[in-house]
Amino acid sequence: MKxxxxxxxxxxxxxxxxxxxxxxxxxxxxxxxxxxxxxxxYMLRVTGMQFKQMIMFMLRDEVWQGSHCEFYQLSxxxxxxxxxxxxxxLDFSLNGNPVDDEKVYKIGLQHFHFMxxxxxxxxxLEEIKKNGKPRMVATSxxxxxxxxxxxxxxxxxEISGRLVVL
Length: 166
What we know:
With 166 residues, the protein is of the alpha+beta class. The chain has one domain (2-165): 5'-nucleotidase,  domain 2 (Alpha-Beta Complex). It is 31% helix and 27% strand. It has eight helices and nine strands. The strands form two sheets. Strands 3-1-7-2-8 form a five-stranded mixed beta sheet. The two termini are 28 Å apart.
């Protein structure tokens, strides 16, 4: 989705992916079973500092003690290494480069997560809007995935987005 929508990072709700694997031949019914939600995708412009705050909130102590939290699949090129004891990132990089606190990044979210951005990330939408107006970049996440799979045959299981919690 990151590539198709021209984003820096796509944060896909982990609960949106319902199967661990597909294939070797993927039918449309396999795609709808694996990805049952067909909602719009939104693009937010966030500073590197805001992005770090968003992920830090996802990894807060209360989550490890049972508090509700949304977890996200990180898109290709994103690497996050978090030290739970020290409460800090050991690595927070995109495409091998440290995320710059002052730089503005284009982050993708599904509709449900966009509508709850303040609750799920603890960053007020009004603060995010200061970087540019959020906008819908696709009316159907499933169509984006369908188009991508149709035009990228013989994909492998390679995973390059990483979240490591120590």
